[in-house]
Amino acid sequence: MTKTFKYWQWRTIFATMIGYAIFYFVRKNFSFAIPGLTAEYGISKTSFGIIMTLVTVVYGASRFLNGYLADRFNARYHMAIGLLLCAAANYAFGFGADLSYLITGESSGPQFVNTMVFIFGLFLLLNNLFQGSGFPPCNRLLTHWIPANELATKMSIWNTSHSIGASIVAILCGYIMATMGHGAWKWCFWIPATIALVGAIGIYVFLRDTPSSVGLPELHTINKKGKEGGAEYKAFLRKMVFRNKWIWILAIANFMVYIVRFAVLDWGPTFLKEARGMSLANAGWTVAIFEIFGIIGMIVSGWLTDHVFKGKAHRTCFWFMAGVAVFMTIFVSLPAGTSMPVMVVVLAMAGFFIYGPQALIGIAASNQATNRAAATANGLIGMFGYASGIVSGIGVGMLVDAWGNWDYVFYGMIGIAVLCVAVFTLMWNAKADGYAEEETAKL
């Protein structure tokens, strides 16, 4: 591989990592503004809960739609325009109270608050519709710039970008809310929006599309007999994505992986406080450590896939989900009075194993669908992943309310992890990628 190609490869990896991390600046900031909005305007948790549920559905649908589009359009423009629109939506968030005043003519009262909630809901839905233009273009770019036998290692490192972005915006917005006093919630939108605006310009300046766009040879022989969107390409998508059994197996597995991941992240602090007697401060640190171990697990799983399992990410996922089941079982079996360090380490090891499949399923889908349909395939499995919120959110809440016992939640998560292991056995003998199959994808 030439020096020039290596330069553009790493430039693409770093530019997309930074760009996607900035998408999280204007996605994860809303939750930090909630306490300020509640204190200033008395907006109920139920209102925020309804909005957040709708957001999950919209984001999942947007991932699918943008995945379909990303395989057809220039990723540089797709990603830059998407981040620019997210910045615009976040600027609008900060003016939510002003817009409500202009519409109602009131600065307080039920009508003013209800109108503001509607405005927030509308812009949050639009923001998450635009957020779907973050990952799919990155996925398309990476599969064009990274060979299939290196994709798991390099993309696992790339996948840390969302954790980095979420961590930095948490520190930034926490500082804003703690130091800027009355109306600080507005700056939780305006400051990240300004960073996103600069980020959109940076993406446009530093990114390029495929290797051929800078005069370099493509990594793979691409079967193009017609324009993207034409009959030949639609036939190609049907074969490599929508009628590809491996993609559907990965989608079902992704649904299960996200249930376990989000159940721990969303309910972890509450569970540790109510069922294990931890303080909320310690519970929060425990979930943070879960995330850190997850990042390490993500990188290790990528290395194992390329160097031990010869690119067969589904086999790595099989063993990692078995690890999830083992450590979740150990965690729920810990006796009363177990020391906090032991609980933290056991739960963190579950995080280590769950984040491997969370990253690798997308990589496996990219390789199975090939770089020509990678974004579409990831859009499909991403939609399944975010649909899991119905189970990990409403399902877990109803289960705890009905049974009053958090252990049943973990029994359920263990059962889902074991079922996920069984799903991965269905594709044990699958090839590492679909590039040989691609050559036969004809009209």
Explain this structure to me?
With about 450 residues, this protein is mostly helical. The chain folds into two domains: about 5-210, Growth Hormone, Chain: A (Up-down Bundle), CATH 1.20.1250.20; about 245-425, Growth Hormone, Chain: A (Up-down Bundle). The chain has helices at about 5-25, 30-40, 45-70, 75-95, 95-105, 110-130, 135-145, 150-160, 160-180, 185-205, 230-240, 245-275, 280-305, 315-335, 340-370, 375-385, 390-405, 405-425, 435-440. The longest helix is centred in the middle third of the chain and has 32 residues, at about 245-275. It is globular and about 65 Å long. The two termini are about 35 Å apart. The model has no long low-confidence stretch (mean pLDDT about 85).
Topology:
Elements lengths: L2 H23 L4 H12 L3 H26 L4 H20 L1 H9 L5 H22 L3 H11 L5 H8 L1 H20 L4 H23 L24 H12 L2 H32 L3 H28 L5 H21 L6 H30 L4 H14 L1 H15 L2 H20 L9 H4 L5
Keywords for this structure?
globular; Growth Hormone, Chain: A; mainly alpha; 443 residues; 0% strand
In short:
This protein has 443 residues and is mostly helical.
Tell me the CATH architecture of the largest domain. Up-down Bundle
Specify the CATH class of the largest domain: Mainly Alpha
Task: Supply the number of structural domains.
Answer: 2
**CATH fold-level name of the largest domain:** Growth Hormone, Chain: A
| Total beta strands | 0
The succession of helices and strands, N to C, reads HHHHHHHHHHHHHHHHHHH
What integer value in Å does the Rg equal?
Answer: 22 Å
Question: What general outline do the C-alpha atoms trace?
Answer: globular
**Approximately how much helix is present in the residues?**
over 70%
Major beta sheet, specifics? none
CATH superfamily of the largest domain: MFS general substrate transporter like domains
> Termini separation (Å)?
33 Å
Structural class, from secondary structure content? mainly alpha
> Oligomeric form of this entry?
single chain
Strand content: under 5%
Low-confidence stretches: none
> What would the average pLDDT be, to the nearest integer?
86
